[in-house]
Design a protein that fits this description.
With 185 residues, the protein is α+β, with helices and mostly antiparallel strands. It has 2 domains: 103 residues, Ribosome-recycling factor (Topoisomerase I, Chain A, domain 4, Orthogonal Bundle); 68 residues, Gyrase A, domain 2 (2-Layer Sandwich), CATH 3.30.1360. Helices cover 57% and strands 15% of the residues. The protein is built from 4 helices and 6 strands; from the N terminus they run αββββαββαα. A 4-stranded antiparallel sheet has the order 3-4-6-5, covered by helices on one side. Strands 1-2 form a two-stranded antiparallel ribbon. It is elongated, with a radius of gyration of 23 Å.
Length: 185
Amino acid sequence: MLEEIYSQTEKKMQGAIEHMQKEFKSVRTGKVTTTILDGIKIDYYGTPTPLDQVGSVIATDATTIVINPWEKNLLGDIESAIQKANIGVNPNNDGDQIKLFFPPMTVEQREEAVKQMKGMGEKARVAIRNDRRAANDKIKKLEKEKEITQDESKAAQENIQKLTDKYIAEVDKILKEKEVEVMKV
């Protein structure tokens, strides 16, 4: 019974970390990545379709993304979808492909990105602490219903705290690495 609580809690805490890392992909770092376009969809024969499913999307260097649609008649749709998404650049359509030129990040933009990521890290920490509280509540309920002893309850809560400390330390480590990556010019 306690093992089940441990594994569920660990799974939820791991999920909080994975969610934070997924959110980090939406934040621009020093080098532009194609994930900045992940949320953009175009109307492809009546179906909202991600850009990477209607053409090749490649980051050719640290500041440029090239979109090469498989059907040239989609160029206008892709261009307007990118403009509507407001990702900070205007698409350049040369009749064959669309190029996005991202200016190098300023120090202020880097600091703002770090601030955004710290907020995402704090959300992950809060989620992990909520998972701890939920697990401890389950353990206390088991103790109250006399399914486990007081000593077992105390030991189980200490194990949950160790899990919490482990995952919060992981959040801090990931956040620190990302911060160094963003601030590096």
